[in-house]
Amino acid sequence: MSLQSLTGRDFLRMADLSPSQITDLLQVASDLKSGVLTPTCSKILGLLFYKASTRTRVSFSVAMYQLGGQVIDLNPSVTQVGRGEPLSDTARVLDRYLDILAIRTFKQGDVESFANYCDIPIINALTDLEHPCQVLADLLTIQECFGGLAGQTVTFLGDGNNVAHSLMIGCAMMGMKVRVATPVEYKPDPAIVSSAQELAVQGAEIVITEDPIAAVEGSQVLYTDVWASMGQEDLAASRIPIFQPYQINRSLLEKADSEAIVLHCLPAHRGEEITEDVIESSQSKVWDQAENRMHAQKALMACLLGMID
Question: What is the pLDDT of residues 261-300, one digit of tens each?
């Protein structure tokens, strides 16, 4: 395995892992899920979340408890970070108390600053730029459904947001074809697209398009997210007519591969980015995907903490 080199490392971007490390990490996640691996530790995970969370908070907490560790919820509203304590001071103090820290915040630069000031592993549990932990769970789910990743076609529809960014990079590194279909003014960050293209291995393909129908044709995976991310709620109503053509509905799903699955990182606005009948259909793997957040993050923490030989 290539995982020993992850001990003590940070996980801030999808590109912090190599293709072989992703492959091995997904195998560890599968082994943890099945009970083949049962590592234990007495480590302490800190959760510093500046944004609301259900799946990320609960999945990290349960994962660490199942590994035998403990969790401290560092809610900014009841700690000094919410009263203006400098990030550098908070980081250096937490580094003395914790074994690993997961941060959910707005600026990518904040998790990078924590990594600069801390010796313990820092995990990006979501920023406005990337959501790499989500994509580890996505890849695990796709692998479970199709038996492998290379050659599969994934279509992301909607806003070219943090999930789309990490998904492009993750798919490119695993030899997958990824299509991102968005309205013209909501395309993913060009720098992320360039990074994904540079990291792409043989067989990978990255397509950015405004045509949702062409994007889903023959695709094995249809993926969407809310049309207005956290912090953009006041824009949600105005975006509905712009994004309506990108809704995953029965008509669009029928243009994909006959065995296609549907993913959504949740929470879902049913009737907006995805219809009720699709998210509740047999092709929906949304709940498996949500469960896999726990397994993927458990594997990630076990590797960063040096628990996997």
Answer: 999 999 999 999 999 999 999 999 999 999 999 999 999 9
pTM: 0.96
Reply yes or no on whether the pLDDT at 253 is more than 60: yes
Q: Do domains 4-130+293-304 and 134-289 have the same CATH topology?
A: yes
Which residues are annotated binding-site positions for L-ornithine?
A: 162, 225, 229-230
**Domain positions in the chain:** 4-130+293-304, 134-289
Q: Which residues are catalytic?
A: 104, 131, 134, 225, 265, 293
CATH superfamily, with its number, for domain 134-289 = Aspartate/ornithine carbamoyltransferase (3.40.50.1370)
Phi, psi of 90 (to 5 degrees): -60, -45
Binding residues for carbamoyl phosphate, by number, are 53-56, 80, 104, 131-134, 265-266, 293
Q: Would you list which residues are annotated within the binding site?
A: 53-56, 80, 104, 131-134, 162, 225, 229-230, 265-266, 293
Tens-digit pLDDT profile for residues 90-142 = 999 999 999 999 999 999 999 999 999 999 999 999 999 999 999 999 999 99
SS (H, E, C) 130-153: CCHHHHHHHHHHHHHHHCCCCCCE
Q: Residue 186 phi/psi, 5° resolution?
A: -125, 25
CATH number assigned to the domain covering 4-130+293-304: 3.40.50.1370
